[in-house]
Amino acid sequence: MPRPLPVALAQSEPLPAGAPVSRFAEHVEDVLASFPGTRMVIFPELHLFGSRVRPAERDAELAATAQPLDGPLVRQLAELAGDLGVWLLPGTICERGDGGALHNTALMLSPEGELTASYRKVFPWRPYEPYLPGDRFVVCDLPGAGRIGLSICYDAWFPEVARHLAWMGAEVIVNPVMTTTADRAQELVLARANAIVNQVYVVSVNTAAPTGTGRSLVVDPEGRVRAEAGEAATVLTDVLDLDDVTRVRRHGTAGLNRVWSQFTDADRPIDLPLYQGRIDPGRWRPAGASPE
């Protein structure tokens, strides 16, 4: 049976650091007024934390405006999601963690007005970002739809992130981005590659020009680009059928490649010296996937 998930990708310029949540709320309300069937609204990385790109200015601004997860900003954002009755991913926030450490953290806020999941960027863009890396991967269940995995911008360059999220059962990987540099073209390739090798949807939402380079996109579990924006501010919409992930994994990409059914009971584990571990065929399939 289809499991539709209507999404809206709000490719836009960041708001000034410290801008009132009411200003952001107006934008979310405008998106929902234009696309009333939307179930999930997604904004770019650090959307609420300013547009400065020079490190000295940016780092000082981030340190001054960082917020804890139990602070007023997250509470107001959760209330907004509850008032509007949607899943809201407001980009990422600069989180102030233990000991004053800064984290680049994605939030998943529920239609019930709750912080359902938070994910700290595991791969900050070194040496340019001041964040302490996260130490775990995060997925979130959407009742009636499926499981969402969270990654942030540069995480997409590390195949271990997408692979681990897919192994944890993610059917969609949401990747908010604030790319202001010339490598957006490579990120588009990575979005398709991560979708193909893991048989998941990939949703990449970038900051709009002139601050960012735009080109947000939605990729299906076989690597086809379903929708792609230009560089200007816009809202990209799509309806993801998460049952398409089940179909592709059962019958194969292009009806051929069933990467999650690769191993047989007779296959031996494969040592992975890079990770001081191994692939165990008995643990290969994604969480919740039934053996074929």
From TrEMBL:
Domain CN hydrolase: 5-242
Pfam annotation, one family: CN_hydrolase
Entry-linked InterPro entries: C-N_Hydrolase, C-N_Hydrolase_sf
Coiled coil: none
SUPFAM superfamilies: Carbon-nitrogen hydrolase (SSF56317)
Keywords: Hydrolase
One GO MF term attached to the UniProt entry: hydrolase activity
Family recorded in the similarity comment: Belongs to the carbon-nitrogen hydrolase superfamily. NIT1/NIT2 family.
Name of the protein this chain belongs to: Carbon-nitrogen hydrolase family protein
Lineage: Bacteria, Bacillati, Actinomycetota, Actinomycetes, Streptosporangiales
